[in-house]
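Data deposition worksheet. Section B asks for the primary sequence of the deposited chain exactly as it was used as input, without tags or linkers unless they were present during the calculation. Section C holds the resulting structure in C-alpha cell form. Section D is free text for depositor observations; keep each observation to a single sentence. Incomplete worksheets are returned to the depositor.
Section A, Depositor: J.P.
Section B:
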Amino acid sequence: MTRAKHVIAILGCAAAFVVAQGLVRGAVAAGTSDGKVGQMNNAFATDLYAELAKKDGNVFFSPTSLQTALAMTWAGARGATAEEMAKSLHLGNDPKSNEELGHFLQTLNADGKKGGYELAVANALWGARGYPFLPDYLSLVKSEYGGNLNDLDFATNPEAARKIINDWVASQTQDKIQDLMPFGSIQPSTRLVLTNAIYFKGKWDLPFEKSQTHDADFAVAGGEKVKAPLMYQQKHFRLAEDESVQMLELPYGHDDLAMWVMLPKAVDGLSTIEKGLTSDRLSALAGQLRDQQVKVWLPRFKIESGFSMADVLQALGIHRAFNPGEADFSGMASAEHFYISAIIHKAFVNVDEEGTEAAAATGVVMMGATAVFKPKPIAVFRADHPFVFAIVHQKSGAMLFMGRLAKP
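Section C:
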C-alpha cells in the first residue's frame, strides 16, 4: 500500500464522506440497542475525522473497526484507564455497552448474509503462548465479540506470529488489507494483539453506465484542476441541501446500505463543511432528504490508507492506556501490568460504475509494562471538487466507513 503524504486515516479518505442511509432510520431507532450503538459510533467517527482531516489529501477509515477493536481492549481496562477510554469512544463507561456492541456486530453479519451485498465483521485475540489471561475476560470477548483466543509464540518467533495475524486479516478482507501489522510491531515481549476486520461489497441499486463515464476537470486545493473519470446518470435519487452543502443518497442493493455524498456548494468550501461536521449535523441533513430527479456526476476512485493511531487517540483523550506506569488493564490479566504499545489501522475503498468495495482492519498491540517498547426542477449534483463521504448501516445509522476525496 502506498502511504502517500495525503493519505491520513484509519480505515481512511480526503474529500469524500460516504455514509449509508442509516442515520435517519438510526435516529428513529435511537431507543433500540443498535440505534444507541449507531449514535456512539457516529460521535466517535466525527471526532476521528476531525483529527485525521487536519492533514491534506485523501482520507478513508472505518470508525466501526477502530471502535470495535478498542472496545474489546476497554473491556479489560479498569479504573481511570477505563473511564478515559469510555469517554473518548463514547461508550459511557457502561459494561452493558459490550453486550450492545456485540448485538450490533451480530446484526451486521446477519444482514450481510441476506444477499444484495456482502458485509462481514470478524474479531480475534492473539495471545502469548501459555500466558495466564483471566478466564472472565476471554469469555466476555468470545461471547459478545466472537473473538476467540489464538496462542502464538511471540517469545521465540515473533515474525512467524506476525505473519499468522496478517494472513488472518487478509483472509477476512478478501485480500484487500495486506500486512496490517508492520515489521517490528510484534516483539518477544508482546502479550496480546486484538484484531478487527470488516469487509463490504455492494452494487448500486441504480448503477452507472460505463459508456457515460468521461474524463473531466476536478478542482483540487489551490485552484488546480486535474482530469478525473466522472460517472454520470440522471434518475430519481434522494437529495438534501442548504445554503452551503448538498447531500446525495446512493442506495445499494436491497436498500439496507447507502452512500451519502456531502458536496460543498463552493468549490473551495470543503474546510467550512468539515469544521461543522458532527453526527447531529449529518442527522439533520439526512432528515431533509427528498426524492427527486437528479443529474449526478460522481468520480470513479480508489483509496488505500494506513495509520498509526496512537497520537490521534491520545489527542481524543486516551492517555493512560499508552503509559506503562499508569495503564490499568487488570481485567485482562493479573500476572503483570499491560499497556497499549501500538494501534494500527488500514483501509481500502474502490468506487466505480457498478458499486463499492471497502475493507478495513485494526490491530491493538498490548505489551507488559516491564518490557518497554515504543513503536422538482431537475437538480444537478456534479461532484467535480473535493467532498466528504461515508457508508452507513441503515438500521442503526452507524457509519461503517468514512472519508473524503480531495484528489481522485
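Section D:
The domain at 210-300+378-385 is CATH 2.30.39.10 (Alpha-1-antitrypsin; domain 1).
The first strand starts at residue 59 and ends at 61.
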